[in-house]
Design a protein that fits this description.
Radius of gyration: 21 Å
Bound molecules: S-adenosylmethionine
Shape: elongated
Distance between the termini: 67 Å
Largest sheet: 7 strands, mixed
């Protein structure tokens, strides 16, 4: 079965009474070389389990099943499940689950697979929800080996930009805390059915075995990053004051200066080490204020 052939995609859709659902970001890949490359690059051992988010009608899923030990595929759209049973029927190493990845209890779902070995993620992500899905995967604390995703080219730039650089966003800093992102290749809109309005890129994130940055309070560290980027137009002390309602302007300026930063700096300019130093200082100030 060649699901990269647009005629075959349309006939499967028609046979199962399906339509492309824009609200679920359904743009199916139809370039065989790209599908094979994503499946090949997503990790380096056939013994791994792959979590696929959004299998669609199973185009990438089939390639993953052919290469890796197990595939667990989470699909939000119930109407695709009968089609997936049909397109994946020759594979006995796949479990398709009709669930929203944002609501799924990934730790419980994947526990049996983590017990048996390594788990990586591979997905052509729905674009309406790319950043929340990546945040959920990274902040889950699950020891994924690699996370390989097809995303909008512009989000790929943000993920792969240096922290403190011009394209850096909160997701860049959070990502660099958990791992390292690498942009693999660009995919034009014409490789999808229907074509999306933007170009795409495939990014592979390798998660750190040992995190190079170790803040004292993991949650406060992530909150500091979020707050610094939420108010991008404000100076860092003003952003901190808006985000940490219980701190005064003077305390925020003092924290920024104690971290060795100028009080007129903006959050987007900070390096990873600056975020660690600042969040450790904020942790002291907040502990003192709570006494
Ligand atoms: N993997 C297929 C491919 O490459 O052709 C389809 C990719 S399509 C861009 C995104 C897929 O994610 C769709 O099948 C869509 O229904 C599914 N999806 C959207 N939101 C989801 C969610 N919150 N949880 C799980 N799947 C979701």
């Amino acid at each position: 079965m060649n699901l990269c052939d647009q005629k075959t995609v349309r006939s499967v859709m028609q046979a199962f009474g399906l339509r492309f659902r824009k609200e679920f970001g359904q743009n199916f890949l139809t370039n065989r070389a790209v599908v094979e490359d994503i499946a090949d690059y997503c990790t380096d051992s056939a013994e791994e389990t792959i979590l696929e988010i959004g299998p669609g009608i199973g185009t990438l899923t089939r390639e993953l099943c052919a290469r890796y030990k197990n595939v667990v595929a989470l699909e939000i759209d119930k109407s695709l499940i009968p089609a997936l049973k049909y397109t994946l029927n020759e594979f006995h190493n796949v479990t398709v689950i009709n669930e929203d990845v944002m609501k799924a209890d990934l730790a419980t779902l994947l526990a049996p697979y983590f017990e048996k070995g390594r788990v990586s993620v591979c997905a052509n992500l729905p674009y309406y929800i790319t950043t929340p899905i990546l945040m959920k995967l990274l902040e889950s604390g699950l020891p994924f080996h690699n996370i390989t995703v097809m995303i909008q080219s512009e989000v790929a730039d943000r993920l792969c930009s240096p922290v403190g650089g011009k394209d850096c966003g909160a997701i860049t800093a959070v990502l660099n805390y958990y791992g390292v992102a690498e942009r693999l290749f660009v995919v034009p809109a014409s490789d999808f059915l229907p074509p999306p309005s933007v170009n795409s890129a495939v990014v592979r994130i390798r998660l750190h075995d040992q995190k190079p940055f170790v803040p004292r309070d993991d949650e406060l560290f992530r909150k500091t990053i979020r707050v610094a980027f939420e108010q991008r137009r404000k100076t860092l002390p003003n952003a901190l004051q808006a985000g940490f309602g219980n701190l005064s302007k003077e305390q925020c300026i003092a924290a920024v200066e104690a971290a060795g930063l100028r009080p007129d700096i903006r959050g987007e300019r900070l390096s990873m080490q600056d975020f660690v130093t600042l969040s450790d200082i904020l942790s002291d100030i907040l502990a003192e204020a709570a006494k």
